[in-house]
UniProtKB/TrEMBL annotation:
This is NADPH-dependent diflavin oxidoreductase 1. It holds the Pfam family Flavodoxin_1. Belongs to the NADPH-dependent diflavin oxidoreductase NDOR1 family. It comes from Drosophila arizonae (Fruit fly). It is an enzyme of class 1 (oxidoreductase). It catalyses: 2 oxidized [2Fe-2S]-[protein] + NADPH = 2 reduced [2Fe-2S]-[protein] + NADP(+) + H(+). Keywords: Cytoplasm, FAD, Flavoprotein, FMN, NADP, Oxidoreductase. Gene3D superfamilies: 3.40.50.360, NADPH-cytochrome p450 Reductase, Chain A, domain 3, Nucleotide-binding domain of ferredoxin-NADP reductase (FNR) module, Translation factors. Residues 190-430 form the FAD-binding FR-type domain. Residues 3-147 form the Flavodoxin-like domain. NADPH-dependent reductase which is a central component of the cytosolic iron-sulfur (Fe-S) protein assembly (CIA) machinery. Transfers electrons from NADPH via its FAD and FMN prosthetic groups to the [2Fe-2S] cluster of the anamorsin/DRE2 homolog, another key component of the CIA machinery. In turn, this reduced cluster provides electrons for assembly of cytosolic iron-sulfur cluster proteins. NADP(+) binds at T444, S504, R505, K510, V511, Y512, V513, Q514.
Length: 578
């Protein structure tokens, strides 16, 4: 029987969960592919009988990029309400309850499928990244219930013998791989542009705990353009130190492959498309540098593959225990809480590592995912600017935890060329430039607002009548982490932008952006009610968005329903990140 697994994934987690469900489906005797929603012809959904959807929510309740096209089709008003009456489906959502629009993409998809006549065979699953066990806290039980339901309704049975389901066939070949430059071009699906790094400076004081970088990128051609609120998507690379550690590990265990080994990868299934990263022959050196995420937290699939050939009973039992529901607490304590890296796990399980095959290596390694950063300048400026907080923190592990992309960007030297793609952000701006904008962007959240302010001031110089611009910025200290201080000073001196800055640690009582919003509540309420101002919030998704929303509710006579109305009208927008 055919079972189709479709996923919408932004960071790779939903894809990982979908592929695990697909592998388990083989154990239950099902056939059918696992595909991203953009790789599947969504018009064929009317022909399907059984589909499992795994969908992540990104940004402010948005669907992932590889789901957008399919979602647009499903929303067509011309689709009859009985279009999918022959379809039975199950839907699992991956989200984060620290965001107000928790699991919106999955909730909307589930509701739309029902509206089109499809029948849900089990309750909508809502995974929460805030759960102690992350998405596994929901996905494992939900998947078990899915198989239980299908077993009862379709009389399918699970095979007793464990079944090894692999995605790829890997063949060693005797030829030179493509040049590194070619490899970088095809690791990104969308059109990438070439930029030259003109500046890479630290914007925070040397003794400040957080290293934040301003990167200025020069365009290779004037044809490269962007809008305020757009993001730049980059494909990071592993550091030379990580790559060396990886190959030192292979050498230590005297495995039959090394950095110079060149392979050709093909799909092990007719209906499973080959990953774009493997579409050309590659050396292991290239895979370790550009393709595999060596600093990733190991997922259960890696542990499962690592256990396959392990002859040491204690190591094998531990790896398989980590893959079970019963071993979840131990897995979280070993991997998630200390933020243990993939390479560190491989060093711990020495007997399993010693028996690793080349095919298993490709099967278990996670791919580097692209990262997106808000563009912090208008295209009328000479450069495309990024404001990047460098991730570097300590856990109980011996070495600090380093964010892959932010540290790669930090170490780039001026003059280097990099490839990156420009994508639309989640923010939408009012069509009339006379409409007032109220922007709240503490920390690196200021980036998209610098872009729209530059844009509006450029239009003003061209003679257009631009509405009031009000910006709230927050940081710890005026002397340590006041990003874009020159811009703020110039805007204030020229009386072209109303600027409010909260320095939380420069006085005895902490002052945050929400306190300043309350201070100027009457003025802001007038802009919102009388001039239809739009409100934008960007920055950390911890406590700030909720505190800011409460401050605006207070400013609007404690009318929470009015804020809800603004959100529905897209006059109150949030772009936050964990």
């Amino acid at each position: 029987m055919r079972l189709l697994v479709l996923y919408g994934s932004q960071t790779g987690t939903a894809q990982d969960v979908a592929e695990q469900i697909w592998r388990e489906s083989r154990q239950w005797g099902f056939q059918g592919p696992v595909l991203s929603l953009e790789d599947y012809d969504i018009q064929q959904l009317v022909e399907e009988r059984l589909v499992v959807f795994v969908v992540a929510t990104t940004g402010d309740g948005m669907e992932p990029d590889n789901m957008k096209q399919a979602w647009r089709f499903l929303l067509k008003r011309s689709l009859p309400s009985h279009s999918l009456s022959g379809l039975q489906f199950a839907c699992l959502g991956l989200g984060d309850s620290s965001y107000s629009k928790f699991n919106y993409a999955a909730k909307k998809l589930h509701k739309r499928l029902l509206n089109l006549g499809a029948k849900s065979i089990c309750p909508l699953g809502l995974c929460d990244d805030q759960h102690d066990y992350g998405h596994l806290g929901t996905s494992l039980a939900w998947t078990a219930e899915l198989w239980n339901t299908l077993s009862n309704t379709l009389a399918v049975h699970k095979q007793k013998e464990p079944m090894i389901v692999k995605r790829w066939n890997v063949r060693v070949i005797e030829q030179s791989p493509p040049l590194d430059e070619d490899r970088l071009q095809w690791t990104q699906r969308q059109e990438a542009h070439v930029f030259k790094l003109a500046e890479n400076t630290r914007t925070t004081a040397a003794d400040h705990f957080q290293d934040v970088r301003l990167l200025r990128l020069e365009r290779s051609t004037e044809a490269i353009s962007w809008q305020p609120g757009d993001v730049l998507e980059v494909q990071p690379q592993n550091s030379c130190e990580l790559v060396k550690d990886f190959f030192d590990l292979l050498k230590e265990h005297q495995l039959q492959f090394d950095a110079s080994t060149v392979v050709e990868v093909s799909s092990a299934h007719e209906d499973l498309p080959l990953s774009l990263a493997y579409s050309k022959p590659l050396s292991l050196q290239q895979a370790a540098k550009y393709i595999w995420d060596l600093s990733a937290r190991p997922r259960q699939r890696l542990l499962e593959v690592l256990a396959q050939n392990c002859e040491d009973e204690m190591e094998r039992e531990k790896l398989l225990e980590f893959c079970s529901a019963e071993g979840l607490e131990d897995l979280i304590s070993y991997v998630n809480r200390p933020r243990r890296m993939l390479l560190e796990l491989l060093q711990d399980f020495r007997h399993a590592m010693a028996k690793l095959t080349l095919s298993q290596l490709f099967e278990m390694m996670p791919l580097i995912q692209t990262r997106s950063f808000s563009i912090a300048s208008d295209q009328s400026a000479k450069t495309l600017d990024l404001l990047v907080a460098v991730v570097n923190y300590k856990t109980i592990m011996h070495t600090p935890r380093l964010g892959l992309c932010s540290n790669w960007l930090k170490d780039l030297e001026v003059g280097v060329e990099l490839r990156a793609a420009i994508k639309p952000g989640t923010m939408t701006w009012p069509k009339e430039v006379q409409t007032p904008l109220i922007m709240i962007g503490p920390g690196t959240g200021i980036a998209p607002f610098r872009s729209i302010i530059q844009n509006r001031l450029h239009l003003q110089q061209l003679g257009q009548n631009v509405g009031p611009l009000v910006v709230f910025f927050g940081c710890r200290n005026r002397s340590k982490d006041y990003h874009f201080v020159e811009d703020f000073t110039a805007w204030q001196d020229n009386n072209c932008v109303e600027v409010h800055v909260a320095f939380s640690r420069d006085q005895e009582n902490k002052v945050y952006v929400q306190h300043l919003i309350r201070q100027h509540g009457a003025h802001l309420a007038k802009l919102i009610r009388e001039q239809n101002a739009y409100i934008y919030v960007a920055g950390s998704s911890n406590n700030m968005p909720k505190a800011v929303r409460e401050a605006f509710i207070e400013a609007l006579d404690n009318d929470a329903s009015y804020i809800d109305q603004l959100i529905k009208q897209r006059r109150y927008q949030e772009e936050t990140w964990a």
